[in-house]
Amino acid sequence: MRHFGHLAPEVRQRLFYREPCVFDTDSPARLLSAALGATLYSPATRPRLADDIVKQTGRGVVSMVLCLEDSIGDEDVEAGEENLVRQFADLARRRDSEGAELPLLFIRVRTPEQIPDLVRRLGATVELLSGFVFPKFTEERGIPFLEALAGAETASGRRLFGMPVLETPELMYRESRVDALEGIARAVDKYRSRVLALRLGVTDFCSSYGLRRAPDMTAYDVQIVASVIADVVNMLGRADGTGFTVTGPVWEYFRVPERMFKPMLRHSPFLEGQAVELREKLIEHAMDGLLREISLDHANGLLGKTCIHPSHVPAVHALSVVSHEEYSDAADILRPERGGGGVLRSQYTNKMNEVKPHRAWAERTMLRAEVFGVAHEDVSFVDLLAAGIPG
After folding, report:
1. CA-to-CA distance for 105 and 87, rounded, in angstroms?
2. CB-based contacts of 169-172 (< 8 A; 24+ apart in sequence)
3. pTM, entire model
4. What is the span of the domain harbouring residue 99?
5. Same domain, yes or no: 289 and 342
6. What CATH number does the domain containing 148 carry?
7. What is the CB neighbour count within 10 angstroms for residue 280?
8. What whole-number distance in Å separates Cα of residue 81 and Cα of residue 68?
9. Dihedral (C-alpha) 177, 178, 184, 186: value to the nearest 10 degrees?
C-alpha cells in the first residue's frame, strides 16, 4: 500500500516531486507509525464491514480501527466479535481470489481478555490484523492489555502492535496529570517494540468537564484540552529517542447547518488553484475547522489523526504531504558536510536554517516525506486535496 496510491500514476507524477513510498504490514515500526495517516474508525457490528474496508482502501484509506468499545452498545459486543471473525474470513477470500488491497487493520477492544480470544477465533486470518487499540489507558489498566498482546503475538506467530488511547480523567485533572503520564511512560517504555503510536481521546477529555467544542473551534481553542495535549507531547512525544508517535484528536463534524464565526479558509489559495467551489464545499461540511486543526496538530508535534468520517481522510493526507520548501530545508540541514553545525540561508531565501537546533525537525520531516511524499514546487495543499477527494 502507499498514500495516494488510489490516484492514477500520471496524476501522482504531476503532483509529486518525490512520490510516497510503498509499505506493508511487515514494514519497520518507525515507518508504519508515521504512515498511519487518517485512521478511520468503524463499528465492528457493520454487516457489510468487508465491503466498507475494500471500498475505503480504494479511496485512499491506509489504516482502520474496527471498534468493539464506545461505538457499539454493551449488548452488541458478542455480535461484534462474531461479525469480525466472519468479515476477516471474507477479506482473506477477497485478497486471495480478487487481489483486493487492504489497509492496516486494528481492533479496538474493551478488555485484555478479548485479545487472545479474538486472535484464536480469527485463526489463519489473523495475518490481516496489525494490532489492537487499548481504551482508557493508564499504567495500572494498560499493563494487562500489553501483556495480553505479547501473549497473543507469541501464540499466533504474528507481529502485533498496540495503540493505547490516552483519555482518562487522571490526565485532565491537574493534580494527577504528571503522575498519570509518568505511569503511562513506564508502561509503554517496557513494551516499546509493541507500541506503534499513542492516540488522544479528546472527546473523553471534554466529557470530564461537560464540554464539547463547536465546529468553528479546534481542540487548541479549548484551553483545558490544549494543556493536556501539550503535556502529553512534552512527556511522551520527545524527539530524543524516548518519544512515541502521538496522533491527533478526532474531528466530530461533517456537516454544519449554521456557523457563528467566519470561515477559517482564505480565498487566495483556492483562487490560484481555480477551486472556489471546493472551498465552498469544505466550508459547508465544516472542513475549514478540520484543516486548521490538522495544521495545529503538526505544529504541536502530532502526526496522523483519528477520523470518524471518510470525508476527513483526504484533508489529513493532503496536509501531511511535505512541501517542496520543507523538503529543501530538511535536505540542506541533513547534508553530511553540515554535521559540525552552523547557520545557513534557505534555498528559498526566506528563512534561517540552524543545523543543530533544526536537525530533529529535519529528520522527522524526511520520515514524513518518505511516507506521504514531497509535492512539486508549484503544487499546493489545494491541488493535493482536490485530487484526493473521490469523484
Report:
1. 12
2. 169/208, 170/138, 171/205, 171/228, 171/231, 171/232, 172/205, 172/208, 172/209, 172/224, 172/228
3. 0.92
4. 22-321
5. no
6. 3.20.20.60
7. 13
8. 8
9. -170
Q: Residue 165: which residues within 8 A CB-CB, separation 6 or more?
A: 108, 133, 134, 135, 136, 137, 198, 199, 200, 201
Q: Which of 213, 110, 102, 120 is nearest to 158 (CA)?
A: 120
Side-chain half-sphere exposure of 7, counting CA atoms within 13 A: 23
pLDDT tens-digit profile, the chain (391 residues): 999 999 999 999 999 999 999 999 999 999 999 999 999 999 999 999 999 999 999 999 999 999 999 999 999 999 999 999 999 999 999 999 999 999 999 999 999 999 999 999 999 999 999 999 999 999 999 999 999 999 999 999 999 999 999 999 999 999 999 999 999 999 999 999 999 999 999 989 988 899 988 888 899 999 999 999 999 999 999 999 999 999 999 998 876 555 545 555 555 555 555 465 665 555 555 678 888 899 999 999 999 999 999 999 999 999 999 999 999 999 999 988 776 778 888 888 888 888 899 999 999 999 999 999 999 999 988 889 888 877 5
E-strand ranges in 146-261 read 161-166, 198-200, 246-247
Q: Distance (Å, rounded) from C-alpha 145 to C-alpha 312?
A: 30
C-alpha cell at 159: 507481529
Rounded distance, CA 117 to CA 97, Å?
Answer: 28
Residues 215 and 243 in one domain: yes
* 195 and 332 together in one domain: no
Q: Is 199 helix (H, G, I), strand (E, B) or coil?
A: strand
Angle at 389 between CA 387 and CA 390, to 5 degrees: 110
Angle between helices 223-236 and 174-190 (to 10 degrees): 30
Asked whether residue 62 is domain-assigned, the answer is: yes
* Bridge partners for 162 per DSSP: 132, 195
Quote the CA–CA distance of 333 and 342 in Å, as a whole number: 9
